[in-house]
């Protein structure tokens, strides 16, 4: 699905609307997985104090919460892989995140969930069905300012639309193909705005008047740089650091549809695996494992510093005044203009860069971030982490996908996805047969999806979701724009994708 975002002047956003186009934007993948931190983890400096302040916990409660999250995260990942198409989402419950709840559409799976120490919940719709329903809702509301916030609420097992004109929004949805049993419209005054205004959270300046915040240090080949929000600048814009010393140049930027960018810096700046904790110290970045719903999360920004909260929803669509943005993560962490682009981190795992929100850090607010996995995959970046490790070269695949006119190779981390060809799409000028073949290595479980652009959204038209790394797709379709999505359902490794098009 496409995504979208904007740019900033001083502490106030100043961006004009972008012209819509029927040609699909560049692709937007998911996330990378990293081994779980030991339960004996020492909490990052400043995080305990921030959790005490923002979640109203004692020091002991904040410590217990982080230990529970660390202990339960791998259990959630394991059960998601085992449940497959019956998985209905997972979340942490309780003030101390002491309970892992895992939803499923198959009552027979509850005993397996309980055996892992989690609480089982039977739901009517799988997470895959909810994600598809959100796509339909996004399509129905894409030309409307009604319902500026849409997300998958796994706790309610519905798609939720927040709207300040709920009756109008309901009328629009009822006139569309949306299943009314799947969607709940909630009255809300929330109107998200962009928050634009090498250590994550530090300020940087674009030109002479705009300010944003560094997200995370990254590398691409021999180039050093950092990831940030797409609305902060466009390719070719120059930047200076918090000290107004020349810093770098935007290499790429995507907004709207997504809110992602990266800046290559000059030799005066060295990437560090750190995020500022707002009190003169730093928090280490060890990886980018995705935090589940209910997990603690903290944000660092150059306007308001260090604030914490919890993950509310993972798959959220936002209508900013500048356009729609898809697949953001929703949090109850506060932020203000100038914090855009800054770091979101859960314990020591990078989560994403600040996009926009509503409210402030005096009265409280809601903030959305662009997941870091999409930024890394879209631009071919490597996150700078404390272990300094680099992935091994991909092994040769088994070669079962032969005889295809186009062949692409790559690697996937656990829970990662990528769009091919080359994070973009291909155009078929005539109707006919599309065929794709995915060939992976080892005991991993990779899946393959073919998507078509319908002049508004990407729609999945064919799937292959077997329990092995090898998948095949055939689909007869009309002329148009197409792309493949390669997904690691479980495990990491190399793959080869072969495909033919009319």
TrEMBL record:
Pfam families on file: Pro_Al_protease
Signal peptide, first to last residue: 1-22
InterPro entries: Pept_S1_alpha_lytic, Pept_S1A_streptogrisin, Peptidase_S1_PA, Peptidase_S1_PA_chymotrypsin, Streptogrisin_prodomain
Swiss-Prot/TrEMBL keywords: Disulfide bond, Hydrolase, Protease, Serine protease, Signal, Zymogen
Residue stretches making up the Peptidase S1A alpha-lytic prodomain domain: 125-179
Keyword Signal attributed: yes
Domain of life: Bacteria
Gene3D superfamilies, sorted: 2.60.120.380, 3.30.300.50, Trypsin-like serine proteases
Similarity field: Belongs to the peptidase S1 family.
The name this protein goes by in its record: S1 family peptidase
Provenance organism: Streptosporangium vulgare
């Amino acid at each position: 699905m496409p995504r979208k975002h904007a740019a900033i002047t001083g502490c106030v956003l100043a961006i004009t609307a972008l012209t819509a186009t029927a040609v699909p934007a560049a692709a937007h993948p998911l996330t990378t997985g990293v081994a779980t931190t030991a339960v004996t983890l020492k909490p990052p400096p400043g995080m305990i104090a921030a959790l005490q302040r923002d979640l109203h916990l004692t020091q002991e409660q904040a410590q217990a919460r982080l230990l529970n999250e660390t202990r339960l995260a791998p259990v959630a990942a394991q059960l998601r892989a085992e449940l497959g198409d019956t998985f209905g989402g997972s979340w942490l419950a309780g003030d101390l995140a002491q309970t892992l709840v895992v939803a499923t559409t198959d009552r027979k799976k509850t005993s397996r969930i309980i055996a892992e120490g989690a609480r089982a919940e039977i739901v009517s719709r799988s997470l895959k069905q909810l994600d598809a329903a959100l796509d339909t809702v996004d399509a129905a509301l894409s030309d409307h300012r009604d319902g500026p916030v849409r997300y998958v609420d796994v706790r309610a097992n519905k798609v939720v639309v927040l709207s300040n004109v709920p009756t109008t929004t309901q009328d629009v949805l009822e006139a569309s193909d949306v299943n009314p049993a799947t969607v709940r419209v909630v009255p809300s005054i929330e109107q998200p705005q962009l928050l634009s205004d090498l250590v994550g959270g530090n300020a940087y300046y674009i030109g002479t008047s705009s300010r944003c915040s560094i997200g995370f240090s990254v590398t691409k080949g021999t180039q050093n740089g950092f990831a940030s929000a797409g609305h902060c600048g466009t390719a070719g814009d120059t930047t200076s650091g918090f000290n107004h010393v020349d810093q770098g140049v935007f290499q790429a930027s995507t907004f709207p549809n997504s809110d992602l960018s990266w800046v290559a810096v000059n030799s005066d700046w060295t990437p560090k695996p750190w995020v500022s904790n707002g009190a003169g110290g730093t928090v280490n970045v060890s990886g980018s494992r995705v935090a589940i719903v209910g997990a603690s999360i903290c944000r660092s920004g150059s306007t308001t510093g260090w604030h914490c909260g919890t993950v509310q929803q993972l798959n959220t669509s936002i209508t900013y005044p500048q356009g729609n943005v898809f697949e953001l993560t929703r949090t109850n962490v506060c932020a203000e203009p100038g914090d855009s682009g800054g770091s979101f981190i859960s314990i020591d795992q990078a989560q994403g860069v600040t996009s926009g929100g509503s409210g402030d850090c005096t009265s409280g607010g809601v903030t959305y971030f662009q997941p870091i996995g999409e930024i890394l995959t879209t631009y071919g970046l490597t996150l700078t982490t404390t272990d300094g490790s680099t992935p091994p070269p991909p092994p040769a695949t088994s070669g079962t996908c032969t005889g295809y006119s186009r062949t692409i190779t790559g690697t996937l981390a656990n829970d990662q996805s990528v769009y091919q060809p080359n994070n973009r799409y291909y155009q078929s000028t005539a109707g006919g047969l599309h065929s794709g073949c995915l060939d992976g290595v080892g005991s991993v479980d990779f899946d393959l999806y073919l998507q078509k652009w319908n002049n508004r959204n990407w729609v999945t038209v064919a799937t292959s979701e077997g329990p092995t790394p090898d998948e095949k797709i055939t689909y007869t379709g009309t002329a148009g724009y197409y792309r493949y999505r390669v997904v690691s359902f479980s495990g990491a490794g190399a793959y080869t994708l072969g495909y033919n098009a009319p």
